[in-house]
């Protein structure tokens, strides 16, 4: 797995927004020097608190924004360069997006059949019976039925709407899905159902998924690898089990400590740790240009040379981790 080439790869990706008016021009570095790769048929979880740049990363990849700098490749082809009709087509054919709020992303005046079938009609499938057939097939895949096809989004529950959004995303058989907090707006009881559905579809269709979430509990069970984002930077990337067993970056530790425990006894005594960059890093973190460094195979952490030594010791189990 480790030497499988990436399907999607971002290198030093930056998305800076100008904000403020007049004399006080400010730059929001929403995504700053972010590098990661997602392998074919993998679920990569991108996690971090609200405002850290997850959505901007997804939107920059699918070119809702032009990157400020850096490159993104998909299947070896650069998708971050000058926009052409060919590139737009390549992107929409290969990468589909699922959004957090299914009601905002589904046109209320369109029937489910029109919504789910839109990707086909846009691509010139004119035969209505053919569109209908494929829509019904997709509805079946996401756990809905053909009776749902003639209804409107408001007639459905949140979980069902997200299923509609998923059917719309996969009807054209993209290779990759970027799911931007697809379950954050759903009841906890429904979240697992939608996650299981995505997992099943991944297996069945060989999908690659970039799964964005603001906490680790959601991605914990089904991400192959996880990237932790803080203030526009990726601070740690590791296989899911490694991230839980030996988190290195203090921000990752803080995120992990926030996951509620299923056991009420231990939950009571669980200690939440917060992240305080001033306190939790050596001085050179702020002056010494930390870089993403591979500390053991498949485990990257954003650190300075002196922190690197510390983390190496922790990984080797020498220091008290
Ligand atoms: N179009 C935009 N113009 C200016 N600033 C933006 C824009 N989109 C996002 N931002 C800012 O970039 C940062 C990251 O936002 P976002 O990617 O939405 O974070 P997340 O999805 O992790 O919550 C935030 O500070 C946000 O206010
Ligand atoms: Mg977001």
How would you describe the overall organization of this protein?
- The protein is α/β, with parallel strands linked by helices and 321 residues long.
- It has a domain at 8-107 and 174-246: 3-Layer(aba) Sandwich (Rossmann fold).
- Helices cover 38% and strands 24% of the residues.
- It is built from 14 helices and 12 strands.
- The strands form 2 sheets. The chain has an 8-stranded mixed β-sheet, with helices on both faces. Strands 2-1-4-5 form a 4-stranded antiparallel β-sheet.
- β4 (69-74) and β5 form a beta hairpin.
- α4 packs across α5 (128-141), α5 (128-141) packs across α6 (158-170) and α6 (158-170) runs parallel beside α7 (188-205).
- The longest helix is centred in the middle third of the chain and has 18 residues, at 188-205.
- The protein starts with 7 loop residues before the first strand and ends in a 5-residue tail after the last helix.
- The mean pLDDT is 91.
- Magnesium ion binds next to α1.
